[in-house]
Amino acid sequence: MHTRRLAALTRPGFMSLRKSRFFSETATDDIRGRLLSEAKTAMKNKNSFTSTTIRSVLSEVYAADKASPPKVSSPAITSIIRKATLQRIQSAAKFASASRPDLAEKERREADILSALIPPFLAESEIDGVLRDVLAQHKPEDDPGRALGKVLGAFYTKVDKSTVDAHLVKSRAEALLSNHN
Question: Would you state the pLDDT for residue 141?
Answer without folding.
Answer: 65
